[in-house]
């Protein structure tokens, strides 16, 4: 039986990389499970009757609940979520504070996507000035958006942002407001509404998990192969050296 002698450098490489590859595969599997749970929650809550804004704070998990609103938009404090592509075209999503008359609560409502092909020209949008009855869905972000640097909230409105934080907005405005974004459903005041339920489906996470596990398997097989064949190379090298010495 061949002795197993992989060498210390390959051993260190495998010890450094193999746990990380396996951990990344397991993380992708967990993300796939989380996305399935989100999709199941979304499907279940689409058949729920809309709740009133006053009930939102009482819900332990408000994600994807339909909400009925009646009130007015605050046109003076709009937010533009940057880097939003639709059909290969650049644009922004328009979010505005909305005051619900029945509950007296402020909510941040996403009115949808707007094209912005030329950044030298301000984004054009209209804000209804009369009270409106609206339907919306609660959107709970899965986590904080990665940012190279924090958004600036100084200067003139509307603010151009790369991440939305309703709580920070309410603190800036000195208002009591709901902690999550609401995404408007088709109706008055809506623009283009075609958000995916999840940015990346569970099948993609499974695909990435398979890739990480395949890399881990390939690394381990290479380690075993070279460990068992290392002696053959040494023996051939030794025999060649002996034959040269004899001549």
From TrEMBL:
GO terms for cellular component: plasma membrane. The chain crosses the membrane at residues 206-226. Signal peptide: none annotated. It is a multi-pass membrane protein. InterPro entries: Surf1/Shy1, Surf1/Surf4. It is found in: Cell membrane; Membrane. Belongs to the SURF1 family. This is SURF1-like protein. It comes from Pseudomonas entomophila (strain L48).
